[in-house]
Amino acid sequence: MSKKECPCGSGKNRADCCEPIIKGKTPAPTAEALMRARYSAYVLGEIPFIADSCVRGEGDHEIDLEETKKWSKESEWHGLKIHAVTGGAASDSEGQVEFSAFYSRAGLKDEHRELAFFKKIDNKWLYAEGRLVPTTIVRSGAKVGRNDPCPCGSGKKYKHCCGRA
Predict the structure, then answer these.
(1) Residue-wise pLDDT tens digits, 25-51
(2) How would DSSP label each residue in 53-108?
(3) Which terminal CB of the chain, N or C, has fewer other CB atoms within 10 Å?
(4) Which of 54, 114, 115, 118 is nearest to 92 (CA)?
(5) Tell me, what DSSP letter sits at residue 32?
(6) Is the pLDDT confidence value at 2 over 70?
């Protein structure tokens, strides 16, 4: 991704995509556009936008701004994938976006998969709540058996080296 390309993966220039929404120059036209802008805000460290784009009131889920800022800054962001969008068009008042945000933190790659719910209040799309969608962890390499040589290179059997309980 170039410095001017939008982090949301739309392929557009940042100034023509999420930046005007994050900076408050234009409202998000759809729930998906707000979702993309929120992802871009995490990538760019624009944490006040994350807080300001949430529904306030009903069950108010407060955001720990310092912890969110730390997570945003310490993560290396790898991309956003939109899995499904239900409602959330300009003419709707509610919408859902199922997405995955891919990132690394402390050397570990992770996927944050969520079903996000959005509401349009006073003609402005806001994030209402999200539910994590469980993901299946897939082993990338072969499983090491108890009697196999230890992958650390010690020459010992796995059960007598790194596989000891």
Answers:
(1) 999 999 999 999 999 999 999 999 999
(2) TB--STT-----HHHHHHHHHHEEEEEEEEEEEEE-STT-SEEEEEEEEEEEETTE
(3) C
(4) 118
(5) H
(6) no
Cα–Cα distances (Å) from 47 to 31, 122, 125, in that order, read 19, 22, 17
Q: Which residue has the tokens 């469980």?
A: 134
Among residues 14, 4, 30, which one has the least CA distance to residue 82?
30
CB 15 within 8 A of CB 9: no
143, burial (CB in 10 Å: exposed 0-12, middle 13-18, buried 19+) = exposed
Question: Measuring CA to CA, which residue among 51, 99, 108 is closest to residue 74?
Answer: 108
Q: Are 135 and 112 in contact (CB under 8 A)?
A: no
Q: Which of 123, 63, 122, 127 is nearest to 95 (CA)?
A: 127
Model pLDDT for residues 110-152, shown as the tens digit of each residue: 999 999 999 999 999 999 999 999 877 666 667 888 899 988 8
Closest among 86, 112, 117, 108 to 100, alpha carbons compared = 112
